[in-house]
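Human: Here is a favour to ask of a fellow structure person. Comparing notes only helps if you start from a blank page. Give me a protein, with the fold worked out from its sequence. Please set it down just below, with no commentary around it:

Assistant:
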Amino acid sequence: MAVSAPARERLLTIGTVCRRLKPEFADISISKIRYLEDQGLLTPKRTQGGYRMFDEDDVDRLETILRLQRDEFLPLRVIREELATGAAKVRRRKSAALGEQEEGLDLDGLCERAGIEPRRARELEEFGLLEPRVESGQRIYSETDADIAEACETLARFGIAPRHLRAFRTATDRQAGLLEALVGPALRSRNPERRRAGIEDLQALAESAHELSQLLFTRNVRKLAGQ
């Protein structure tokens, strides 16, 4: 629906939104906002000429999405679910920040959170998709492991077995290796300030690398769809 003249005065262009959020989200860009719209996370209004226009609710929603990506590295699928259920504003759990250890889950807790059977967990671990740590002889899984297991189970419904997902693991290992080469010395430093700066650089690099991976993947998917 086209935006009426009175309503248009209360709306913001995509460029204005980008400039408004830039102080907090240095890597925000028009292309990133468009990408989030393509993923169904944003639904800005349109003028008769087709220009995107955002109201304050749209901006609040965008800020929430960006914070969940930046602070908790949640995949867009999870962010979409939390926005739909209203859980994004008040998180039931707070993911650990970089440099902090995540809350641990035993095998039963992992299976309950991810909705999988123990057999599936063992299979995912066999192919390197889950990486539990061992404490007192017991495997302890992270909350990220639970999210990964849930995503793998969704793909399994389409016939994609864990062995098919090794390519994802290999690609992410290479990406993480590149980031490690850039900030590894700072992260290993005994100087608290240098280590803190290294973590900040790692977070900024991870956000940009994650966005690039999403954009490249989206471009390939569009090609498959003939767009």
About this structure: The beta strands are 12-13, 45-46, 52-54, 104-105, 133-135, 138-142.
